[in-house]
Specification:
Radius of gyration: 27 Å
Largest sheet: 10 strands, mixed
Shape: elongated
Helix content: 40-55%
CATH class of the largest domain: Alpha Beta
Number of domains: 2
Strand order of the largest sheet: 8-17-16-15-14-13-12-9-10-11
Length: about 525
């Protein structure tokens, strides 16, 4: 972001203009929320206190104060600026705020913070414009005192807290959060979201996150050959729309490929059926299951549409004895087919030998098919020496943080504190697609960076949702979508299905199978959006 601003300024779109745009855009976002925040308050002043830092973020805040104070008959505003440090009279945005009639107080003139306390107690909205993206140091001194005063008053009085770019105390790169940091109701960030907005614990402090333009001309970036240090982007409907497979009116089941789900054991009989059903819901033409003989009948009932590889020589869990059946299936497959291995497969040592034998067979017989490895398949993989060399290029791995820890040797804390960086590092190291599951799921490519999903949904924190995700990705792979796009599209459909369920049902009570009927609804929604656009 600092480089974007530098390039823009050098091209003639000055820092002053960007600051003006940022402040006015933030004020517009705040004003749009007045009716919801203050029902029945039309005609009465809305009292706003802007906490102003010494740098550019403070300048954004002063412009925001000026913009908010401009005449509005419906919701007049009484905006006041509390400056952490005295700003120079030569500071143009400071002088403009004074000229606009903004009441200003400097902390140096309020050593006991009596004025600050009175202003905060009388405020309806507080705007945090203290520290911006360029600061990651621990909070101390006067700044800590101001924030602690704010938190004490917020504990006893309902205030709407608006952060400009992000709350003071968040690390914009790694997502850490200083103990003094406040909790925002609304964060208005400029030009683009920052990594820290999608990393916990800082993400908890965002509140509603809104991204606004500061008028940076894209041609300026193009002409300067601007390249970000890391290719990380945010997924949205528009990104995924173009990845969905086109459905031909004269298609047959062979048009959309075949998915083979290998998994299940006596303890986890339902998992492979969730993956199989999800593959169908994502559009696969045919799904075949390879499960132990002891659960085939129940699997048939749970997923009536699936066909089966009969494995009578594996009554309770998959073993090397069934590899001869797998080899026969591999002999007739091509690139229109995908394998999903791992859902409910269990941790029996014989199953680990089965997986090793499967991968050996794959390299010898099935080089064109696509592969997704999930759940205990990943745990077995982590115990094999040199396992990355056993995988076909661009295999899709779908670990949660615990499984990622076993694959990498890192602790869960190390992974969660740098989810994007870890996912990209190991996707490159392993030459695989890594889908690091969790809040703000990360999909990483060996060379093309990563995409972050803008979803956090506690309803999805329930057993079986990962099996649905693996099957969804497999179903898209079978339709000919490249592994990275299939992983991204599948994860987005899965998360969006969870969001659609939550709108009606809330944050708890989801069964993994509930997601299945929502997957085609999400795809239809995305296709309709494409038609409208």
């Amino acid at each position: 972001m600092r480089e974007i601003e530098r390039v823009s300024d050098a091209a003639g779109h000055s820092y002053a203009q960007m600051m003006h745009n940022a402040g006015y855009a933030a004020a517009a976002v705040i004003r749009r929320r007045f009716p919801a925040w203050f029902p029945g308050r039309k005609g009465n002043p809305v009292r706003v206190v802007i906490l102003v830092g010494p740098g550019n973020n403070g300048g954004d805040g002063l412009v925001c104060a000026t913009a908010l104070n401009e005449h509005d008959d419906a919701y007049p505003v009484d905006a006041r600026a509390y400056c952490l440090k005295r700003r120079s009279a030569a500071d143009a945005v400071y002088q403009s705020a004074i000229d606009a009639g903004i009441t200003v107080c400097c902390s140096e003139d309020d050593p006991e913070q009596g004025i600050l306390a009175d202003w905060l107690k009388g405020a309806d909205i507080v705007v945090d414009a203290l520290l911006g993206t360029g600061v990651a140091r621990p909070i101390e001194g006067t700044l800590a005192s101001v924030l602690n005063r704010l938190k004490v008053i917020m504990a006893g009085k309902k205030l709407q807290l608006v952060a400009l770019d992000g709350v003071t105390g968040m690390n914009y790169e790694m997502g850490s959060l200083d103990p003094c940091a406040p909790q925002a109701d609304l964060t208005v960030t400029f030009h683009a979201p920052k990594r820290g907005h999608y990393c916990y614990p800082a993400a908890r402090a965002n509140g509603e996150l809104v991204i606004v333009s500061i008028g940076v001309p894209q041609e300026d970036l193009a002409e300067s050959h601007f390249q970000p240090s890391e290719q990380i982007s945010l997924a949205d409907d528009e990104v995924v729309q173009g990845m969905l497979p086109v459905r031909a009116p004269d298609a047959n089941k062979g048009t959309y490929g075949k998915v083979i789900v290998l998994g299940g054991c006596m303890d986890y009989a339902g998992a492979p059926t969730l993956a199989a059903a999800a593959a169908y819901r994502a559009g696969a033409g045919l799904v075949t299951m390879g499960v132990p003989a002891g659960i085939q009948v129940s699997a048939t009932i749970l997923c009536r549409e699936a066909t089966f590889i009969t494995m009578s020589d594996a009554p309770s869990h998959l073993t090397p004895a069934v590899l001869s059946h797998i080899e026969k299936v591999m002999a007739v497959l091509d690139r229109r087919h995908a394998w999903v291995i791992g859902p409910g497969i269990g941790q029996n040592k014989e199953t680990s030998a089965f997986l090793r034998g499967f991968l050996d067979l794959w390299r010898a017989k099935s080089k064109t098919c696509q592969l997704v490895i999930d759940a205990d398949g990943l745990n077995h993989l982590s115990q094999m020496d040199g396992w990355p060399q056993l995988l076909p290029p661009m295999t899709v791995l779908t670990p949660h943080p615990g499984e990622m820890g076993r694959l990498t040797g890192l602790t869960v804390h190390e992974i969660q504190s740098n989810r994007m960086g870890v996912a990209m590092q190991y996707a490159q190291k392993w030459q695989t697609i890594v889908v690091l599951k969790g809040a703000f799921t990360v999909i990483a490519h060996p060379t093309e960076g990563a995409v972050v999903l803008p979803f956090t949904n506690p309803a999805l924190a329930v057993a079986g949702t990962g099996d649905v995700l693996a099957g969804c990705i497999g179903g898209l792979l079978a339709q000919g979508i490249a592994p990275y796009c299939a992983a991204l599209c599948g994860a987005y459909l899965h998360a969006s299905a969870g969001e659609m369920w939550r709108v009606t049902n809330g944050d708890a009570g989801l069964l993994a199978g509930d997601l299945l009927s929502y997957i085609p609804k999400v795809m239809q929604h995305l296709r309709e959006c494409t038609i409208e656009s």
